[in-house]
Specification:
mainly alpha, 15 helices, 0% strand, globular
């Protein structure tokens, strides 16, 4: 059976799209563009910079490397056996070719932006690649992933300015917001693999705490993310439209949490993908409208 958020078709192009589960690669992109918008108050943002940011933050490298690292685990998991590598729709060589190609494009885009982005790009790649192995040794892999995606708004800001924010804490707060938001929904994602992960000796907060307490931790993380988004908006001097976007995000996150209960994961797909895809978009659109007005 085909996983959610994948596409039908047998062409190599479709197989590559499904290999990285393309819709998942854009979760953090609106936050990268949020960084661009806020930075534009300090220095004009050009279309060239915006396009390079989009190229750099599609996360193809991260998703592709994760699929390669997990291919044997995926082959044993009934939920993921149909993925491109375990199912034989792509060879490992084809997967590596795509990941290396995407890595080269990412490094080129970072170099084309400014020296600071170029210097930070290899660090980001190493951190993101390391995430693929964290569930083998820590219950907190969710936060590692969150920190990996938290690079997005920081990268978007630095892409425009070529420097860290002033005040210093501004980028740290938005990075915290993204890290907590991602970690919370990654806990939700891990709910569906609880039985398999226990059998395989893999780590997650769901395995450690059980579904009930893990969901509570996700709620706390999302609460922290909301608080950080509000603090970021105030620190960046954003106006009403941004905070309306955050308010909508709060409603959407609350709705997502209502869809999932311990022992009932029937609406998990809506909570994980639909809700969280909307969150990043409405926060970005709020900041965009605020900047235009």
């Amino acid at each position: 059976m085909r996983e959610g958020q994948t596409f039908s078709g047998e062409s190599l192009f479709v197989r590559y799209i499904n290999f990285v589960k393309l819709p998942h690669t854009v979760f953090a992109l609106p936050f990268a563009l949020l960084g661009v918008i806020v930075a534009s108050y300090q220095q004009p943002a050009t279309w060239r910079v915006a396009i390079l940011v989009v190229v750099a933050f599609t996360r193809f490298v991260a998703m592709g490397f994760n699929r390669i690292a997990d291919r044997r685990i995926d082959a044993r998991n009934p939920r993921t056996q149909g993925r491109e590598l375990p199912a034989g729709h792509l060879t490992v060589g084809q997967a590596w070719a795509a990941v290396i190609g995407a890595m080269v494009i990412f490094l080129w885009a970072s170099w084309a932006l400014n020296p600071l982005c170029a210097a930070l790009a290899p660090v980001a790649l190493i951190w993101i690649a390391t995430y693929s192995y964290t569930k083998r040794f820590t219950d907190w892999s969710h936060l590692w992933l969150g920190a990996a995606l938290a690079i997005a708004p920081v990268g978007g800001y630095v892409a425009v300015t070529g420097a860290w924010s002033d005040p210093v804490w501004l980028l740290l707060v938005i990075a915290l917001a993204v890290a907590c938001w991602v970690a919370g929904f990654d806990i939700f994602y891990a709910l569906q693999d609880e039985v398999f992960d226990r059998r395989e000796g893999l780590h997650s907060l769901v395995v450690r705490l059980g579904q009930g307490w893990a969901i509570i931790v996700a709620k706390l993380l999302h609460g922290a993310a909301i608080a950080a988004l509000i603090l970021f908006g105030k620190g960046a001097g954003l106006g009403l439209a941004y905070f309306v976007g955050v308010a909508i995000a709060v409603v959407v996150i609350g709705w997502g949490h209502r869809q999932v209960k311990p022992g009932d994961l029937s609406k998990l797909n809506a909570a994980f993908f639909t809700a969280n895809g909307i969150v990043s978009i409405v926060v970005f659109l709020g900041a965009l409208v605020d900047r235009i007005l």
